[in-house]
Amino acid sequence: MTKARTDHRIMSQAVREWYQYYNVEWDDQASSFLCDAAIDLYDHGCRSVEDMAATLIETYVGLAGTRVNASSSVSVH
């Protein structure tokens, strides 16, 4: 498996774990937001599915947390 494919799998699995944790159905807007957040986490050195998923779950609480202007959303940096 190539490095790019492995990297994609890490981010993809972390986003899937967020969905499983909050038990919500697929949402295009949330998925786009979460994928951007996962890429940002990866770019800042987060390389494990567990750590990335935990950060997404703690930072973006439910669908409301994925909305750009939601008061519960927190920028990941």
Oligomeric grouping of the chains: single chain
Share of helical residues: 55-70%
Main beta-sheet strand count, sense and barrel state: none
Average pLDDT confidence is 89
Low-confidence stretches: 70-77
Distance between the termini: 29 Å
| Percent of sequence in beta strands | under 5%
Q: How many beta-strand elements?
A: 0
* Elements, N to C (H/E): HHH
Structural class: mainly alpha
Computed CA radius of gyration, to the nearest angstrom: 12 Å
The 3D shape can be described as globular
How many helices does DSSP assign?
3
Structure notes:
With 77 residues, this protein is an all-alpha fold. The chain has helices at 3-22, 28-43, 49-59. It is globular, with a radius of gyration of 12 Å. The termini are far apart.
Q: What is the element layout, followed by pairings?
A:
Elements: H1 3-22, H2 28-43, H3 49-59
Helix pairs in contact: 1-2, 1-3
Key terms for this structure?
mainly alpha; globular; single chain; 77 residues
